[in-house]
Every structure is written in structure tokens, then in C-alpha cells.
Design a protein that fits this description.
Blueprint (H helix, E strand, L loop, with lengths): L1 H22 L1 E7 L17 E5 L8 E6 L8 H8 L12 E4 L17 E5 L24 H13 L8 E7 L1 H8 L1 H7 L5 E7 L14 H13 L7 H4 L10 H4 L7 E6 L3 H8 L11 H5 L6 H18 L8 E6 L10 H4 L6 E2 L2 E2 H9 L6 E3 L16
Parallel strand pairs: 3-5, 3-6, 6-7, 7-8, 8-9, 9-12
Antiparallel strand pairs: 1-2, 1-4, 2-5, 10-11
């Protein structure tokens, strides 16, 4: 009987996956070839790239840019490790990507943005598109030029119609979500003054918290990222004039001064932050957190208490966003990472809701100013609509 039920559930899951795949669209890659002459390149010196699904009808002059994630590299060794991979070289990127969620072109699954021009920017610089170091060591051939690459991509899109944009959103997931925050006002400045511009960060609100050993692991790591990539000159001066540049890689220290409207999508128990900020391997040499990090249901009562405290610290850091109607948020109590680019979590029959509102509706309400949209969930495990991940 149990085996029969398991087979039935597996069939249901497989059917849903097939249906979701059939609803997604495949979009070809575009290389920004003229960027190479400007030195606006990936870690290995290859041109930056993106995938572009052209808008239609009433959305033809609306543009949504979504920057993919992929972590960061904090020194020559870690940057070399990714230089010849898809997060360091456009030569290693797949030629087609599947668009769904906020990038879907189906009205049913993406009612507010389905007919917009939609661009997925490939992430290949290792510093959330903030770095700019002129010198290139021939021994490593590492190019720290993310800030230049970002501008080159925007300029390329401007030549393809974005200069006529009525509406535009800079968004992204994870390290790409952080890129959307750190480059938000820069993007606004590059766009025509008449364009309505807003920014959206999905799982990009990384907080400056101590790990379970009491060490400032993520603060030291971000300081090394900023130093390696020469990011300081491209971080908001409103922050760097007051504190060390490495601290200005944290959204909580930057968002109070951002002038452009901003929306934050984040899990209060963000799986990446639990794994790498709260309980990184260096702070847990015996691996006592391993099972918990893989599956929140396997956390001990003490680990759950620590995670509940982390949620409270996250919410305190989130207070920097403020309560202006131009600032929106959707903070669910799920154990996951990145939700806007996946159909199941963006808008589906059983997608996560907070206050009876899906992520897609919350974002649409905020962008079109239908209602003020700041939604914060109750503590885990209160939300039965969560899609809690199980991670490798």
C-alpha cells in the first residue's frame, strides 16, 4: 500500500514537472561582442551575455532585466576556480535558457509582466557586477570588470529599444539580487528620465550576522570580495563615505540611501544564508549542522531556536528598507532560496502566499501602485503554503 501511494505521488510530481516545463520557453543567448573592446568582460575576458525574449503588444516598451545568481569569489584562488566555468566565462554558458516565473510569457502565469521585454543577464564577474580593476595579471588572466560589464549590457539593450522604455525593472536572484540593489540607482541614471524605473531583489538581502561560532565570517568574506575586485569605487558613496567599503556590500547599509523604488523578496530562513552565513563549514567542523542545512525538518530543537533568532536578526536588518510606499517586500517563512524565477513559487496553484497574496501579485501591486505591499510572514512552521527546499 505504501509503495502504491509513493508511486502515485511520484507520478503526480512528474506530471507537474512536465506541465511546468511545457509552459516555459527556451530563449537563445546573446553575446555583447562590442564590450570586449571596452574591457567590459567576464572573469576570463570573454564578452558578457544575456538571453532576450522580446515584448509584444502593450508590453513592447516595457523592460524587465533579471540578473542570475552564482555567489562570489574573494581572492585569486577562488576566482581562478570559477574563471573557466559558466559563472566566469560566457564561453561555458549554455546557448539556451528556459524562462518561467517572472520571465514567463504566459498571462496566466505572469499577469503583470508576461508581454514585457524580458532579459536574463548571465552572471560571470564574481562580485555582483561591482568590480573594476584596470590591471590584468597575465599569469592568471583574471579580469575584475563587472561594473563595466553591467554598463555595457545596459547600453546594448538601449540600442535594441530600451531607450524608448516606458517602464523598466532591474531585478535578480541571489548574487544577482544583490547586484540589483547595489546597481539600482546606477541603472536609474542610465535610463531615460521619462522611464518609470524600479528595482527588485529576490533572495539578495544578505545580512551581516555572526555565525554559530561567534565569528564574523560573512563580513570578512565580503571585505575580501570588495578588495579583490576593486568594488569600492562602484558602491554607493552615501555608504562608503561613512563606513568600510566591505560593509557597503550588505544591503542593510545601502538601502536607506537608495533613491529608486525597491522591492525585496526573501525567505526569512533563506537557505543560502543559513548554510553559509549562520552555519558555514568553518564554524561547524564536526558537521553537526549538515542534516539541518539539507532539510529544515531535520533540525534539532536547539538548531531551530538558533534559526528563529536568525530570523529576528534578519527582520531587524530588513527594517532599513523603511515603510515608504515606494518600498515593497514579501518575506515568507520558507526554507528556500530564490522564488521569483521559478513558476511553482512565483505563481502556481499552490505557490507560497502571505496574507492570502502570492509573490506575483505582491510585486505587481507594488510596481503598479495598486496598494502598498509590505508583507512579512509569521515564524516557521506557520505557513503551510511554503515550498521548503531539500538541498545537496
Amino acid at each position: 500500500m505504501a509503495d502504491a501511494r509513493l508511486r502515485t505521488w511520484l507520478c503526480v510530481i512528474l506530471s507537474i514537472q512536465i506541465l511546468l516545463k511545457s509552459e516555459a520557453i527556451n530563449v537563445s543567448i546573446t553575446y555583447v561582442q562590442n564590450a570586449v573592446a571596452k574591457g567590459a568582460v567576464c572573469l576570463d575576458g570573454s564578452p558578457p551575455a544575456y538571453h532576450f525574449d522580446k515584448g509584444v503588444g502593450a508590453g513592447a516598451n516595457n523592460w524587465l532585466i533579471f540578473v542570475e545568481g552564482g555567489g562570489w569569489c574573494n581572492n585569486v584562488t577562488t576566482c581562478l576556480a570559477r574563471r573557466d566555468t559558466r559563472v566566469g566565462s560566457s564561453k561555458q554558458m549554455v546557448k539556451e535558457l528556459s524562462f518561467s516565473g517572472i520571465l514567463s510569457n504566459k498571462q496566466k502565469f505572469n499577469p503583470d509582466f508576461y508581454n514585457w521585454n524580458k532579459i536574463k543577464v548571465r552572471y560571470c564577474d564574481g562580485a555582483s557586477f561591482t568590480g573594476d580593476v584596470e590591471a590584468v595579471n597575465p599569469a592568471t588572466n583574471l579580469h575584475f570588470r563587472g561594473a563595466r560589464a553591467f554598463v555595457a549590457i545596459v547600453e546594448d539593450l538601449m540600442s535594441k529599444g530600451m531607450s524608448n522604455a516606458q517602464n523598466a525593472i532591474l531585478s535578480g536572484c541571489s548574487a544577482g539580487g544583490l547586484a540589483a540593489i547595489l546597481n539600482c540607482d546606477r541603472f536609474r541614471a542610465l535610463m531615460p528620465a521619462r522611464t518609470k524605473v524600479k528595482c527588485l531583489a529576490d533572495a539578495g538581502y544578505f545580512i551581516n550576522a555572526k555565525d554559530v561560532s561567534g565569528a564574523s565570517h560573512i563580513e570578512n568574506f565580503y571585505s575580501e570580495v570588495v578588495a579583490t575586485h576593486g568594488s569600492a569605487k562602484n558602491l554607493p558613496t552615501s555608504c562608503t563615505s561613512k563606513m568600510k567599503p566591505g560593509l557597503c556590500f550588505f544591503p542593510q547599509n545601502v538601502v536607506p540611501q537608495i533613491q529608486t523604488p525597491l522591492f525585496i523578496i526573501n525567505a526569512a530562513y533563506d537557505a543560502w544564508q543559513i548554510k553559509y552565513i549562520l552555519a558555514p563549514g568553518v564554524a561547524d567542523p564536526n558537521g553537526t549542522w549538515n542534516s539541518c542545512k539539507l532539510d529544515i525538518k531535520k533540525c534539532s530543537p536547539n538548531q531551530l531556536k538558533i534559526m528563529q533568532d536568525f530570523r529576528l536578526e534578519f527582520l531587524r536588518a530588513l527594517s532599513a528598507v523603511g515603510t515608504s510606499p515606494s518600498r515593497g517586500m514579501f518575506i515568507d517563512s520558507c526554507y528556500t532560496h530564490c522564488q521569483a524565477g521559478t513558476q511553482e513559487t512565483w505563481l502556481w496553484n499552490d505557490s507560497p502566499v502571505v496574507a492570502k497574496t502570492s509573490i506575483a501579485k505582491a510585486v505587481g501591486d507594488w510596481y503598479y501602485e495598486r496598494i502598498t505591499s509590505q508583507k512579512i510572514d509569521c515564524a516557521y512552521p506557520c505557513n503551510p503554503t511554503c515550498h521548503n527546499g531539500m538541498f545537496d
